[in-house]
Each structure stands twice: as C-alpha cells, then as structure tokens.
From TrEMBL:
The lineage of its organism: Bacteria, Bacillati, Bacillota, Bacilli, Bacillales. It comes from Paenibacillus riograndensis. The keyword DNA-binding applies. It holds the Pfam family HTH_24. This is Transcriptional regulator. One of its GO terms (molecular function) is DNA binding. Keywords: DNA-binding. PANTHER family: HTH-TYPE TRANSCRIPTIONAL REGULATOR SRLR-RELATED (PTHR30363), TRANSCRIPTIONAL REGULATORY PROTEIN-RELATED (PTHR30363:SF28). Signal peptide: none annotated.
C-alpha cells in the first residue's frame, strides 16, 4: 500500500471508530488501531482542521482531564446514505395505496414550493441574468450545472449530476416538473435535449428567449 493510501485508510478507520464507538480518546483510538498515539494525533488534528472532528475536555475526580474526540455534523457527509431508497419506498407506497395521480400531486406540490422560494430571485432581471441565477441555484443543490449563450442568442444549461436520478428514473414526473419550473422561473421556452434518467451523460436544456424578454412577473 502506498503512503497516501495508507494515510487515507487510517483516517477512514479513525472516522469509522468515532462513528461507531465515539467519543474516544487518542489513547483509545491508538489501541484500537494498533498504531502510536502520535500517529493518531496527527490524523485527528487534520480532521479537526477540516471541521470533521471536535474535542471535548472531560474532567475526572482524580487525575488530569481527558480530551475525547467525536465527529461533527459535517462528517456525516462522508458516510454512505440511502435517502433515495427511502424516497422511492415512500413513493411506491403512495403509488400503491392512492395511485399515480397522488404521486403526481406530490411532485406538483414540490414544484410550487420551489417556485415560491426562487421566484423572488428572478425579479427585475433579464434572461441571461436569470439563467445565471438558475445555474447557481442548481449548483447549490448539487447538480454541477453550467451555462453558456449560443450564437443565435439562445442559452444552454447543462447539469452533470442529478441528486434525484434514482427517483426520476422511475417517476418521470419529477423531470417534467423540473422543466416546467425552469420555464416559469426563466420566463422562456425550455427544451430538454438530453436526460440522465434516460441514459444520457448529462441533463441538457435549450433555453429560447420569448419575443419580448420583459422579465415577466412570476405567478406563484
């Protein structure tokens, strides 16, 4: 194992121990891992600097206070999550119990909530500014979006990641609502030309200005 790989493996094991058995002292971590306390301390210090671990002083009736370490909320992002499985299970239950229309209503409700949340950010902006803002909104949601203007004056927005891909693959209403949301926020015609839920490498949207781009008032 290369030095970098060994370092990463030790760091991962420390995080796993803190997740499963923490809070722990440096000495306890060293004993579990079978390495020196100095080696553990170096890794824990790095985790602290990255806001992945935190320390707490525990005073004892006798002897010196103990420094115990635990993970921060930020560290949770480094462990596997299966939120999409839970979401799919809930949607299937709703579909089975109340039918497809109930699922569609759920997605439509999400679209309306997002429209109400983001519409104020689009006010008094031209189309280019709205496209840039929408790209920023999507990036904040983990979609890895970018945009550019074509020679004919239209725009293209491309998303290289889809956090709801597993859901969208089984429930295409999610994609339809997203496209409708984009059209409402941008006040423009939006056409999806590629979709990850259909096997594409990205989600690509062609955005065509309307005849008069007056930054229309958005109805929520």
């Amino acid at each position: 194992m290369k030095k970098g790989q060994e370092s990463g493996s030790t760091r991962r094991m420390i995080m796993t121990l803190l997740k499963m058995k923490g809070p722990l002292t440096i000495g306890a971590l060293a004993e579990e891992l079978g390495i020196t306390e100095m080696g553990v301390r170096r890794h824990v210090l790095q985790l602290e600097q990255e806001a992945l671990a935190k320390t707490k002083v525990v005073r004892q009736a006798m002897g010196r206070p103990l420094h115990v370490y635990s993970l921060t909320e930020r560290a949770e992002d480094h462990f596997p999550k299966s939120y999409h499985n839970l979401a799919l299970e809930l949607l299937r239950e709703l579909d089975h119990g109340s039918g497809q229309e109930a699922v569609n209503v759920l997605f439509e409700g999400r679209r309306k909530r997002m429209l109400a949340q983001y519409a104020p950010m689009m006010e008094n902006r031209n189309l280019e500014e709205r496209v840039a803002e929408l790209s920023s909104i999507q990036n904040a949601g983990g979609y890895m979006a970018e945009w550019n203007q074509e020679e004919d004056g239209s725009y293209v927005m491309q998303e290289y990641n889809c956090p709801i891909r597993q859901v969208a693959t089984q429930y295409r209403k999610a994609c339809h609502c997203e496209q409708a949301l984009f059209e409402e926020l941008l006040g423009a015609k939006v056409t999806r030309t590629e979709c990850m839920a259909e096997g594409g490498q990205s989600c690509r949207y062609a955005i065509t200005p309307r005849k008069k781009d007056k930054s229309p008032e958005l109805s929520v």
